Amino acid sequence: MTEQLDELADLIRDERLRELRVALDELHIGDVVDFLERLGVKDRAVTFRLLPKDTAVEVFDMLDQALQHEIIEGLKDGEVAHFFESLEPDDRVRLMDEMPASVARKMLRHLDPRERSLTNIVLGYPSGTIGRQMSPEFVAIPEHWTVRQAMEKVRRAGTDAETIYTLPVVDRQRLLKGVVSLRDLLTNDDEQIVEALMTEADSVDADHDAEDAARRCADRKHLAMPVTDKEHRVVGIFTVDDALDILERAESEDAARHGGAEPLHRPYLSTPVLTIMRSRVVWLLVLAVGATLTVQVLDIFESTLEQVVALALFVPLLIGTGGNTGNQAATTVTRALALGDITTRDVFKVLWREVRVGLTLGSVLGALGFVLVGLWGPGDGNPWAIAAVIGLTLVSMCTLAASAGGMMPILGKKLGADPAVFANPFISTFVDATGLIVYFMIARAVLGL
Amino acid sequence: MTEQLDELADLIRDERLRELRVALDELHIGDVVDFLERLGVKDRAVTFRLLPKDTAVEVFDMLDQALQHEIIEGLKDGEVAHFFESLEPDDRVRLMDEMPASVARKMLRHLDPRERSLTNIVLGYPSGTIGRQMSPEFVAIPEHWTVRQAMEKVRRAGTDAETIYTLPVVDRQRLLKGVVSLRDLLTNDDEQIVEALMTEADSVDADHDAEDAARRCADRKHLAMPVTDKEHRVVGIFTVDDALDILERAESEDAARHGGAEPLHRPYLSTPVLTIMRSRVVWLLVLAVGATLTVQVLDIFESTLEQVVALALFVPLLIGTGGNTGNQAATTVTRALALGDITTRDVFKVLWREVRVGLTLGSVLGALGFVLVGLWGPGDGNPWAIAAVIGLTLVSMCTLAASAGGMMPILGKKLGADPAVFANPFISTFVDATGLIVYFMIARAVLGL
Hints:
homodimer, mainly alpha, MgtE N-terminal fold, Tetracycline Repressor, domain 2, 3 domains, three-stranded mixed beta sheet
């Protein structure tokens, strides 16, 4: 497939656009999207203009918001309105979040009144909430209706609604009473009352955190979840495919921050080199500033280093192992937080586990290090003294690193930050500095310096 | 919520089981699952036995396979058969993968013939393929049928089928011709021919890699995808909630390996400390062995170190920065591979991008390092010489680290391994060793040692 897409890219480069148009016609729509995501801004604009109108709308709907925004920028006003109108209200709001407020307002004005008011409902919730991601186009069924009545409404409203497979059931005040699946309506008798078929609704408040709601939707395998207001009236519905988008975005963010960079929020090959560089440079600088601590620590112990230069040989090994132990713990805990397996209230449970894990790991590595350095290490006649220093440092460092690594993501979340921000690269820097202090203190004590 | 769950745990500890039973009755089923996932093996077995029979079956279906297996182990044979029978064929196969083959075979023998033959279909595909994860219970519609006939079949088969919302359309040879959504059937005329309503099917071969299929299902927002055999006959269906499970598992694996540990495949709090320790110790040892390279490199340059001890002060800072740069690149590329934004064929595109990014980052950091060390650094009268060493090392190290970091995951994938295995911790170890060589070579050249 990639090979084929590369051949298409060659057609752009050689400006053989007529051939490109024919080739695009033969691709599955998902492959056209994959192709556009591999191109730079200009090539993408050129290619997009070659698509037949219907295909263009479908393709536009499937692109990342960042790429939609770039395409919009390259189009004339009339065309813009057309694509903007083609989006669902929730997707429209997400695209608007990418654009300058003035442009977004202008585009909103061009919408027909119904679409505009639907869009405004979603716009009414703060970004980051599930209200901002839900669809306001749902089909609610009164609880006293029969299956026949319900099916009638589903058939009528079927084409516009976000989903008709999970239907909120409401009372006369439009308060949410439960949900009924289309499957249950279809496999039951026409005269059955909906109330008898509905199940307890797993709903979510419109002000609820979007990622958390998406995780719940995915964990509990709902095709859709009703979204309610403070009075428990249904205001929207939130489907599993939107949950997938939110989770994928959240996981890309976690992954990037774990690696010590800001997320790109767009496909790698479509991102200019300078944008990639910018996503990394601030983190690198912050971490490098943090790492100057290690220079200061070593500076303090410079006399110890001068007396026993052999101690310097083990510095990368020791801080590397400490960093690895810390990363392991931080990664496990960050992931458990993201999956909802633990919450910030579990801080002491986590600490107690990580202390034990760190101590066990440290004992294994420390014993091994002691024997190996004792047998083959440097030490000018007394290798076992340096071996003891290495062994003891590994035990303390692993315990320290695992505990700190387990605590940092929880601390980060408590402070309202993304847990991943406080995780891996910071752990390494922290463990580097504190670990070195431990190392030289133990060395001074054991070697009597 | 966590608070409430902790109170329930107190009830177990105090053996107030009658109160626990009442409290469990009042929880939403999803919360019962969350609660069980926070308990140790014994407490979970105790609690599970308190659940009413219907709830127990539902709860059992929602647990991780590893926890299902532990519960099964604690039950009597008759009970086992009951729970085993309650699972869908695809979930049953996943649970069987957790159990010793002899136990699995025994349980298979207790199933009724229909369930057993369905399970055997799924068992027929190698693990890791989508055939192993699909459901063999689908509703296929012949293309020449009317909407009325199709709806009749959906109503009849509706309760057993995995999904009725996406329906494969087949010809007389049962070859896949397209898919039709239940929504389209419902919103069209009863006498319409299905062929006129169906859309192109995005199907997947049963032997296809499960994670790749799941990613496609999620990316293209399908509620379900038909699974076909070599002759393009429909053999099963694969729904978005199974895709979610596969992706969550894959992402947990990636996250764990990024952090240099093996995935737990079970909730953190329910995992014994020794199991956590085992998931980490092998990686730590392998990485520590790799890190002994740094000891050897430093040993070779020990005379240089003895002449200018100040060089030792910058070792953690330099290798830390190199490691961070490498991690950033590795993380971005691993994620792009996972999302399908790039493939292994893009290796030179990635290399060329990362060389440029690394060089830019290195220049910024190098210039900064040169000035700062020159102004305030050590150096016994000639700080600018050491400053030059640091600056030049940062430029080369960042370029090297970004390129190696970008290449490793692709190399890993080409070799058929999980890209994440070859990523971050290995990068750090590699960059530590090579970076030190670069550092001391530059130092010798610049300082004329």
